[in-house]
Amino acid sequence: MAAAKTDHTDERFEREFGRPLAEAGRRSAEPMADVGAVTGRPTAATAAFEHPDPPAPHYWEFGHMGAALAGALPYVADGELRAGLERVRDAYAPVPAERFADLPVAVVHHDLNAFNVLVTRTGQRARVSGLIDFGDALPTARIADLAVLAASVMRGRPDPLGDVRGQGFYSGVEFVRDRQTKEPAAEETLMICERFKDEGVLAYPTGPHWNILKLKPPLSFTPAMADEFAAALDRVLEAGW
């Protein structure tokens, strides 16, 4: 369902259509899977559509990433942030230029951020109820919608990982309270292990500060099991940090 955009999502609009995903609180794996399925349908439906007079590309259009970054960098005052953006530019800007012409194309939303995806809650389940703001839709690489949405839903999520290291199937995930100071998150790591028990996962802390999650799965560990573990870790972290 597509709904017209309003300047403010008032109570009546929210009752009728839902509230923005960005304001919906906890985003567990289930509603995010629903987000992916629902938002992919318009793109799939327009895969064969050819506009007789297509609109001009946006400045922020996927294939213009290099030019957009180059134009924005001089205005980024934070030196660390600017350096990070420069690394992104150097590593990834050549990729669209080299591969853009080979990417599957469709008419995409092109501003599919978490404020333009509406959700409703029934009991404990949040489901996607609609999309708004199609003013920037245009034909471009289908991956553009996924890139915008993924970046948007990750904003504001807890990011307690200090480091991940290991060899083979033996790995350690370090949790910290501050990624700059590397303050160990010992109590939080123990809390994660306790919550894992409710998910059917047994994991234990280790290290001099007891803030490293020790992972030693059996050799019979499969990709499907790895997916289950990643989903469980996501739920555990989303429950609070």
Report on the structure:
This protein is α+β, with helices and mostly antiparallel strands and 241 residues long. The protein folds into two domains: 2-58 and 96-154, Orthogonal Bundle (Transferase(Phosphotransferase), domain 1), CATH 1.10.510; 161-238, Aspartate Aminotransferase, domain 1 (Alpha-Beta Complex), CATH 3.90.1150. Helices cover 39% and strands 21% of the residues. It is built from eight helices and eleven strands. Strands 7, 8, 9, 10 and 11 form a five-stranded antiparallel β-sheet that branches. Helix 3 (65-72) packs antiparallel against helix 4 (79-92). It is globular, with a radius of gyration of 21 Å. The two termini are 35 Å apart.
Outline the fold blueprint.
Blueprint: E1 2-3, H1 11-17, E2 19-20, H2 29-45, H3 65-72, H4 79-92, H5 94-99, E3 105-108, E4 117-122, E5 125-132, E6 138-141, H6 143-154, E7 161-167, E8 170-178, E9 183-184, H7 186-198, E10 204-206, E11 212-215, H8 223-238
Parallel strand pairs: 1-5
Antiparallel strand pairs: 2-4, 3-6, 4-5, 7-8, 8-9, 8-11, 10-11
